[in-house]
Write a structure and sequence with these properties.
- With about 70 residues, the protein is mainly alpha-helical.
- It contains four helices and no strands.
- The protein has helices at about 5-10, 10-25, 35-50, 60-65.
- Helix 1 packs across helix 2.
- The longest helix is centred in the N-terminal third of the chain and has 17 residues, at about 10-25.
- It starts with a helix and ends in a 6-residue tail after the last helix.
- About 0% of the residues are buried.
């Protein structure tokens, strides 16, 4: 089993990789509207809505964000 397969096999390692990618983006000089952090936020929001959790998104740009579909690509 390769290192990549080992890391992707468990939920704690996947969370570690997610946090690492988020921290690396925050430390980079380049900031954009299509950031990794924004994609993670929108994906988590969509998962909560799909599960039936009582979540609400409001404020400037909320309507557009609700319509945004985040994919792995």
């Amino acid at each position: 089993m390769s290192v990549v397969e080992t890391l992707l096999a468990g939920p704690r390692a996947r969370r570690l990789l997610l946090e690492y990618a988020d921290a690396a983006e925050r430390l980079s000089e380049v900031q954009s509207d299509n950031s990794f952090h924004r994609a993670v936020f929108l994906a988590a929001y969509r998962l909560d809505v799909d599960r039936g959790s009582g979540v609400v998104m409001f404020g400037p740009g909320a309507e557009e964000a609700r319509r945004t579909v985040v994919t792995a690509e």
